[in-house]
Design a protein that fits this description.
Blueprint (H helix, E strand, L loop, with lengths): L1 E7 L6 H15 L2 E8 L7 H13 L5 E5 L9 H13 L3 E4 L7 H12 L4 H14 L11 E3 L5 E3 L1 H15 L5 H10 L12 H9 L7 E3 L2 E3 L9 H13 L18 E3 L6 E11 L6 E11 H6 L6 E3 H12 L5 E2 L6 H35 L4 H31 L4 H17 L5 H11 E7 L2 E6 L2
Parallel strand pairs: 1-2, 1-3, 3-4, 9-14, 13-15
Antiparallel strand pairs: 5-6, 7-8, 10-11, 11-12, 14-15
Helix pairs in contact: 3-4, 3-13, 4-12, 7-8, 12-13, 14-15
Length: about 475
């Protein structure tokens, strides 16, 4: 096995000291030290990390590579940076381990993220210590109904309570009873909670949602599968979750309805942005006094909406998005895709750099969302890795494109490669419009188009760089 060392200079540890620790690590574990990559303190360009990425890509065919670092913080000072770089390496099939103990740094990265989200206060440091215990499956706090704390602080089944848990799942899944009726039946049959109280919809729902009953212990964002004996099979638990999700009412938190053309649709009359607006209208039909409800989504000139300027220019969202798709499908439909002078090329490259950075920020937000889900126990470590490895691969592509764009800006290089990539994306939009998920389609549109000028009698597509 060959190992790569990556170090960032800190006040506490010099690069030479970290390099020596890496060599000791290799000797102690029988690894071949393939290379070391360094980034000096205060260096913002991460030349060493990028060189390491290039090295890994070149060595991919030979396999058997791992990256050794002093600790999770060595990948980046900010938790988002560290997580991004970890999953970028993971997307290349490389394991990242700690020099201290040889373990994968993913768990400590998630712990670092949880501490960051809770602002690192004194109470959060206590929670961090408890999370370390939770990783082993040791019970912290009150055990869930159906279990008690047994030897080695593991959950063990309480037979009487366990029978009630199985009963709740059975009558919900097989008898089709709702949560309210289950609570009523339990109370009618004189079955009581652990404290001898009556059952409520909340207590029943919490039991149906608790992954502890399939043998998974969850605490402080840590999930430990198969930590104790299950009461419910994973298949039955999953079927219950699906049914619960289907029964969610619309009275909870209002879902935000995103607009596909946000940020690139502009009013063709005043030049200001078109913003997405959602409205619900209710009225009573005179013929039978029935209540009617309709939902409307449309794009409207921001000047009119927020400043009472411009005229009332509005387009239904569905109609405008359909018109954009049809316009993209026509040859020579995008203005600005012809040869330009060097000044225009430079301006376009600057715009490309800005959009790439914006796309990187959007990918970081998605990464942070998945980290939050893992820290809260909404998704497990395996799902986190599955989601974030693909993000890491995309972020590597974005960063590589950004490096290339900066180089082009500095060298005033030609735009041919970018044009070919753009044409591929345009072809994908033309041929596979309905196949893309919302975020993918929106990203492609923003890569291909800089602006959509919307007028009452049509629209004009302006190409991006």
């Amino acid at each position: 096995m060959r190992a790569i060392g990556y170090f960032r200079e800190t006040e506490a540890d010099s690069l030479s000291a970290q390099s020596e620790a890496f060599l000791d690590f290799c000797r102690g574990n029988g690894y071949e030290a393939a290379a070391t990559f360094l980034d000096a303190r205060g260096s913002g360009d991460l030349t060493g990390f990028r060189q390491m990425i290039d090295f890994v890509k070149q060595q991919a065919s030979q396999g058997f590579l791992l990256v050794a670092i002093p600790n999770a913080g060595s990948l980046g000072g900010a938790p988002t940076d560290a997580a991004r770089r970890y999953f970028q390496l993971a997307s290349l099939g490389v394991q990242t381990v700690s020099i201290e103990d040889g373990s994968d740094v993913s768990a400590s990265l998630l712990e670092k993220w949880s501490d960051y989200r809770t602002n690192g206060g004194v109470g959060d440091k206590v929670k961090a210590g408890m999370r370390k215990r939770a990783v082993t499956g040791a019970v912290l706090g009150r055990p869930p109904f159906g279990y008690k704390v047994g030897p080695n602080r593991r959950l063990v089944i309480v037979p009487e309570e366990g029978a009630i848990v199985r009963y709740i799942f059975r009558i919900y899944l097989k008898d089709g009873l709702g949560i309210r009726r289950i609570a009523r039946r339990l109370n009618d049959e004189d079955l009581r909670t652990r404290r001898g109280g009556l059952w409520s919809m909340v207590t029943v729902r919490d039991i149906l949602r608790n992954r502890a009953y399939i043998g998974t212990y969850s605490r402080f964002g840590v999930r430990v599968p198969a930590s104790h004996a299950p009461l419910i099979s994973p298949d039955d638990f999953q079927r219950v979750q699906e049914r619960l999700d289907q029964r969610r009412t619309t009275t909870g938190k209002r879902a935000v309805s995103p607009f596909l053309l946000s940020g690139i649709a502009f009013c063709g009359h005043c030049g200001n942005k078109m913003i997405g607006v959602s409205r619900k209208q209710r009225w009573t039909r005179r013929s039978d006094n029935s209540l009617r409800v309709a939902h409307y989504r449309y794009y409207q000139c921001e000047s009119r909406t927020n400043r009472s300027l411009c005229d009332y220019h509005t387009r239904r969202a569905e109609d405008l998005e359909k018109d954009v798709h049809e316009a993209l499908s026509k040859p020579r439909s995008i203005k600005g895709w012809q040869e330009k002078d060097p000044d225009e090329i430079a301006a376009e490259i600057e715009g490309q750099i800005r959009r790439l950075k914006d796309k990187g920020k959007r990918l970081d937000k998605r990464l942070e969302k998945h980290l939050d889900e893992a820290a809260s126990g909404t998704i497990d470590h395996e799902k986190l890795r599955s989601l974030c490895v693909s993000l890491g691969a995309e972020q590597l592509r974005i960063e590589q494109k950004l490096v290339e764009a900066v180089r082009r800006s500095e060298q005033e290089a030609s735009e041919k490669e970018t044009r070919r990539e753009r044409q591929k994306k345009l072809k994908s939009l033309r041929e596979r419009w309905d196949d893309f998920a919302f975020e993918e389609k929106q990203d492609l549109l923003r890569d291909v188009l800089e602006k959509i000028m919307v007028r009452d009698d049509g629209l004009e597509l302006i190409g991006g760089s």
